[in-house]
Please model this.
Amino acid sequence: MKCPFCEANNDKVVDSRPAEDGAAIRRRRECLVCSARFTTYEKIESLPLMVIKKDGSRQPFDREKLLMGIMKSCAKRPVTTEQIERLIDTIERVAGNMMKREITTSKIGELVLRYLRSLDEVAYIRFASVYRDFGDIHSFFEEVRSLQEQEQQVSYVADPLDDTHPVDVAALIDDTASPDNTDTPDVTL
Model:
């Protein structure tokens, strides 16, 4: 493995342990040239999930692109990096559990919104303002009003990132839903 610091190809593995619920191996390595330590992950290679863009073009799913978008919406909010990582892991898992190897950007956006809503409402509104491309202040206030109404109707909201509360995957990725439908699906408790 090439050292990210000195680019030497001479290192040793210092520690190995399972990661991502056993789906990967985390390895701590030490460069034998500069003594710097770095972490690598080993995963099973699988077919890439393809994302269908609004213009109909397709590109491989980019975890980093999703991470950056979610991190922007969570900026200066009490949301930890671990929570964001779990959110993205959950979205990847839900998308990967589909019988198809393609997912639309609108489905990814709806998944993010569904999970962000219960994680942090301000982050949800920030993400929704970009994702739903609010045309004016009225559509922005309509989204806030909708969020407030739903909050009043729900007395208990499960953490959607908690694996003890299974997600209704079919509802989250239902391709028969109208693209104009901005309601987010319910989480099965």
Confidence is low (pLDDT under 50) at residues 163-189. Residues 50-172 form one domain. The helical segments are 63-73, 81-96, 105-119, 121-131, 137-153, 169-172. The chain is about 40% helix and 15% strand.
